[in-house]
UniProtKB/TrEMBL annotation:
Ranges of residues in domain Fanconi anaemia group A protein N-terminal: 31-258
GO biological process, one term: interstrand cross-link repair
A matching Pfam family: Fanconi_A_N
InterPro entries documented for this protein: FANCA, Fanconi_A_N
Organism: Larinioides sclopetarius
CC terms in the record's Gene Ontology section: Fanconi anaemia nuclear complex
Protein name: Fanconi anaemia group A protein N-terminal domain-containing protein
Length: 261
């Protein structure tokens, strides 16, 4: 028994060291063949399930902490999630890890508010993307948790939490059968269209301020145009706040159209 425990510890140590090296690999170094060799360690049956699960949890946490990257840097690359560019070259590996975990365990990590200020948001996108691909039928768990995150963000006037919720909403919309701009706008209207939080001046000001911060980073003209075509229903006495946001959208669209000409 002691020998088996020692063997498991050695295996875990080897895998952890390999994982640390893995996080430093460039896209051209990441191949499915190399990943299959790595994951064959798990399939050999010499590592106990408990040890495997502990490692999976450990690896997800380590990946999140791997070099702090700001949230808006992740927002800029979000639509490239199907590419093999950094950091999405790691998606295949993360899918393998997430398949070994219960969906609820991954969701707990994704929505852990205690690590939001210290994580690498690009790697966060990779984990979120891997989860959506791996557990497509479980996306309702993500959406339910995201609704709670939206609720908390308004109650605490927490801009970071609301930005995170919007990024998560975008990521799930990227996997919709509808065009991305339509799917995202539908999620947006479902989430905020009839919300009690946009019927209060303080909450509206908070909400619009967050939306305005996204505009300089937005590169999807389709999303902005759909947002203008299908605006939120704002009470007339608060419309002046929303108008500032729509003016920003129109200006951003013009700037991007000039760049793409």
């Amino acid at each position: 028994m002691k020998l088996q425990n020692l063997f498991n510890l050695v295996c875990l140590s080897i895998i952890r060291n390999f994982l640390k090296e893995l996080f430093l690999l460039k896209p051209e170094d990441m191949t499915k063949r190399r990943m299959k060799i790595f994951f064959s360690l798990w399939k050999c049956g010499l590592i106990e399930n408990k040890t495997l699960l502990e490692f999976c949890i450990y690896s997800v946490h380590q990946f999140l902490k791997n070099q702090n990257v700001a949230m808006m840097e992740a927002f800029l690359i979000q639509e490239r999630c199907n590419s093999h560019d950094e950091p999405f070259h790691m998606t295949f590996m993360m899918e393998k890890i997430i398949k070994s975990l219960k969906p609820d365990d991954v969701v707990c990590i994704l929505f852990d508010s205690n690590v939001e200020s210290t994580i690498n948001w690009k790697n966060y996108l990779v984990i979120l993307e891997a989860f959506v691909r791996t557990h497509d039928n479980e996306c309702k768990i993500i959406l339910r948790s995201n609704e709670e995150l939206v609720k908390r963000s308004f109650q605490q006037l927490d801009q970071s939490a609301l930005k995170k919720a919007i990024i998560i909403g975008r990521q799930t919309a990227l996997h919709s059968k509808e065009p991305f701009s339509m799917a995202y706008n539908q999620w947006f209207l479902n989430q905020f269209g009839d919300s009690l939080y946009i019927k209060n001046l303080q909450y509206i000001s908070f909400f619009i301020q967050v939306l305005c911060e996204f505009v300089p980073y937005e590169r999807n003209i389709g999303i902005m145009k759909v947002s203008l075509e299908r605006p939120l229903t704002i009470a007339s006495e608060y419309q002046f706040i929303y108008n500032d946001y729509t003016v920003l959208l129109k200006t951003r669209i013009k700037d991007l159209e000039v760049c793409f000409v």
